[in-house]
Structure formats: C-alpha cells, structure tokens
Known about the structure:
The chain is α+β, with helices and mostly antiparallel strands and 118 residues long. Helix content is 20%, strand content 33%. The chain is built from two helices and five strands, in the order E-H-E-E-H-E-E. The chain has a five-stranded antiparallel β-sheet with strand order 2-3-1-4-5, covered by helices on one side. A hairpin with a 4-residue loop joins strand 2 and strand 3. The protein is globular, with a radius of gyration of 14 Å. The N and C termini lie far apart (30 Å).
Amino acid sequence: MAVEYKNKKYFRLRGADSTLKTFSSTTDANTKIGFTSVYDTSTPTKTETLEDSGQTLVVTYEFDSDADQTAFQNAISDAWTNSPHSPFNPADATDTVEHFKNEWLQPDGSVGQTDLLI
C-alpha cells in the first residue's frame, strides 16, 4: 500500500429518537452500521478505531494507487446516487448511519484536507 493514497472516514449511528448510539468495539460498530460491499471496492487496507467515547467509528482506508482510491470513491458516490439503497444496511432498520467527515491524508500522515459532510 502507498501512504499517499490514504483517507479517513468518520461514521456514527443515530437512533430513531435522534440520540447517538455508542459502540462497544469496532466489531460492534461494523455490525450495527452494516457497511455494504461497496466499501470493499479496490480492496483497501482498513484500520479502525473508536473516538468520541465510542460514538464515532473512524476507518482509515489505504490504497495501492490513485486509480484504486478514485474507484472506491466513485463506487460510494454511485451507491448514493444510482441506487434505491444507501451503502449501509444497519442492524436496526430504524437507525440512521451518518458518514459525517472525510480527512484526506498527506504522505507524512498529516491531514491535507477535511470535508465536513453534515
């Protein structure tokens, strides 16, 4: 993998009552969020951590090339715009998954750009 093709995505889960859910582990977060296979496009290396007292799952995606990273981003965009479903299948259908921030990392690991999505 090449460190220059790396980004972080921030996810949280909001219940039907609008409160944020807390995850007990990254495995729990993945189960509750229900990422679809679109998040496996280009077979990224993933590193997962919990932040905000377990209410945010941060996934760092690392790719072999710019083309792989672009294909991944395009697949996610297509899932939102060209599909009747989101790229998530939450364990509790009344929950809403929020992908609320992206950080694009520089080769030295510092944040080069931040996109707030909500």
